[in-house]
Amino acid sequence: MAASFQTNLILILLALVLSSSATTAQELDETESLSLGPEKLTRFRLYLHEIFDGSNATVVYAAHGNATNLVFGTVSVLNDIIALGPEADSKVVGRAQALLAIASQTESALTMIMNFVFTDGKFNGSVLTLAGRNNLNLKVREVPIVGGTGAFQFARGYVRTSTVFISQINKTAVAEYNVSVLHY
Ligand SMILES: *[C@@H]1O[C@H](CO)[C@@H](O)[C@H](O)[C@H]1NC(C)=O
Ligand SMILES: *[C@@H]1O[C@H](CO)[C@@H](O)[C@H](O)[C@H]1NC(C)=O
Ligand SMILES: *[C@@H]1O[C@H](CO)[C@@H](O)[C@H](O)[C@H]1NC(C)=O
Ligand SMILES: *[C@@H]1O[C@H](CO)[C@@H](O)[C@H](O)[C@H]1NC(C)=O
Ligand SMILES: *[C@@H]1O[C@H](CO)[C@@H](O)[C@H](O)[C@H]1NC(C)=O
């Protein structure tokens, strides 16, 4: 019984593959097969400048979990400045736009999707996309780079990030991001 079910399943899957390849051959009249050349590894350092309170805040709480005493379930949206240095007057090259969720019940760990949107400098017009876990309990956190656009088409890599300072006086925080990215 199980064996014949398996045989049937294989036949159905085979039929699906054969029929879809037949359809593909009819519909795609133009195909390309290009060699992209060697990938290069680019490394650079950026600083995210955040205002976490007040009317010009660059991070806002968007939603929270139903359990009032827990940070678990908290969702925030972020639009930090990306600058070349940690100082307040450093050259601005873009924005870091992100969706952040506290997705651990035991640690301050974020599950995040973050886009580095470059509006100046060498990568003006390009976007680098990060997605993964950011465990805020660690001094240095590693987050994967999963793709991008413009200069970062086909990108993959990782960032290593740490907090430079958090000031409760002027409600600003700065984080350092060391980017290592493979792209063409
Ligand atoms: C917000 O930014 C504006 C424009 O830069 C500035 O005039 C204002 O003082 C800032 N508000 C706060 C609370 O920092
Ligand atoms: C949220 O919590 C309240 C009080 O504990 C409960 O009555 C309600 O059903 C909960 N709502 C959801 C969507 O879990
Ligand atoms: C960045 O790119 C945009 C769009 O191409 C362009 O309008 C702008 O002038 C560029 N900025 C700099 C500083 O090169
Ligand atoms: C980033 O790189 C610099 C220079 O190599 C290093 O001093 C710094 O500790 C690195 N930061 C992180 C968060 O890895
Ligand atoms: C806020 O305070 C920190 C720590 O004192 C300082 O390094 C930073 O330059 C200040 N930022 C602004 C925008 O004043």
Automatic annotation (TrEMBL):
<dbReference type="InterPro" id="IPR044859">
    <property type="entry name" value="Allene_oxi_cyc_Dirigent"/>
</dbReference>
<dbReference type="GO" id="GO:0009699">
    <property type="term" value="P:phenylpropanoid biosynthetic process"/>
</dbReference>
<comment type="similarity">
    <text>Belongs to the plant dirigent protein family.</text>
</comment>
<protein>
    <recommendedName>
        <fullName>Dirigent protein</fullName>
    </recommendedName>
</protein>
<keyword id="KW-0052">Apoplast</keyword>
<dbReference type="Pfam" id="PF03018">
    <property type="entry name" value="Dirigent"/>
</dbReference>
<comment type="function">
    <text>Dirigent proteins impart stereoselectivity on the phenoxy radical-coupling reaction, yielding optically active lignans from two molecules of coniferyl alcohol in the biosynthesis of lignans, flavonolignans, and alkaloids and thus plays a central role in plant secondary metabolism.</text>
</comment>
<keyword id="KW-0964">Secreted</keyword>
<dbReference type="InterPro" id="IPR004265">
    <property type="entry name" value="Dirigent"/>
</dbReference>
<feature type="signal peptide">
    <location>
        <begin position="1"/>
        <end position="25"/>
    </location>
</feature>
<dbReference type="GO" id="GO:0048046">
    <property type="term" value="C:apoplast"/>
</dbReference>
<comment type="subunit">
    <text>Homodimer.</text>
</comment>
<keyword id="KW-0732">Signal</keyword>
